[in-house]
């Protein structure tokens, strides 16, 4: 007789106080419950190591080894220690641990320079003895270029450079930006202010490209001119804020898109200094990596940063098990949280 599973649908249902039918529907992605219930079921199933037959089949179909695999040790290179990087790290680490592998993060100090000093630093930290390497977003271009040349499996958690032969996964900021413009347009906004740099990072450039594409598609071609927006480097915060206040004070805009994480609070500050109320007088959509506890009602596209880390782990194991497969470039698209920082304007 087949061995009975140690963890069953009933196990999960009993622990959460739900019916077996509800748990089954949640794990199969069927409608009929709140997202909080669905998430609770999925989280508990993962914690208990429960996989549905469909999940097991999916892992096999993607050629991802998940049983009886040799434990492997991977490295992840990170610039800085921000919540943005912790989300990526957490996703990779969680998925690898589930599948019996380990990850050690290497935070690159700002003193490391290009060339021999960088190579010496890599050797000092035994990078060349790892089974694979995860490259996070925001690495300097010279560093990313050098790392992509290393003779080991790699997964880039970023948009890949042109002609790069590497597996990559990223939360789709182009889709998120276009969705943000569409959501504001649907609520009657035609004069939308874009705020944040449009260079030098690939992600920054792609955000601006997506903004102008959405504007053109919706017949708002006048918004494609950078000079009317606030696209100066935010590193000079005082100058950036002065520009933002100047644009808002004209009354020419009914909504703002804060295009990179961490800037929404500064938009609120500028609006407050001008006695502009959000959303009564100016609507705001912010591309934040996660919910901001100090701004709980923020309207935002959902950027799947942690989920990108989980997918990166799967791509790495798939690459190691199947080195001749074509490279994949995966983009994860999230939904949109309408929030309370935008309103209709007709």
TrEMBL record:
GO molecular function, one term: DNA-binding transcription factor activity
InterPro entries: HTH_LacI, LacI/GalR-like_sensor, Lambda_DNA-bd_dom_sf, Peripla_BP_I
Pfam families the UniProt entry points to: Peripla_BP_3
Residue ranges annotated for the HTH lacI-type domain, each copy included: 7-61
Keyword annotations from UniProtKB, A to Z: DNA-binding, Transcription, Transcription regulation
UniProt-listed Gene3D superfamilies: 3.40.50.2300, lambda repressor-like DNA-binding domains
CDD domains: HTH_LacI, PBP1_LacI_sugar_binding-like
Nucleotide-binding in keyword set: no
Protein's name in the database: LacI family transcriptional regulator
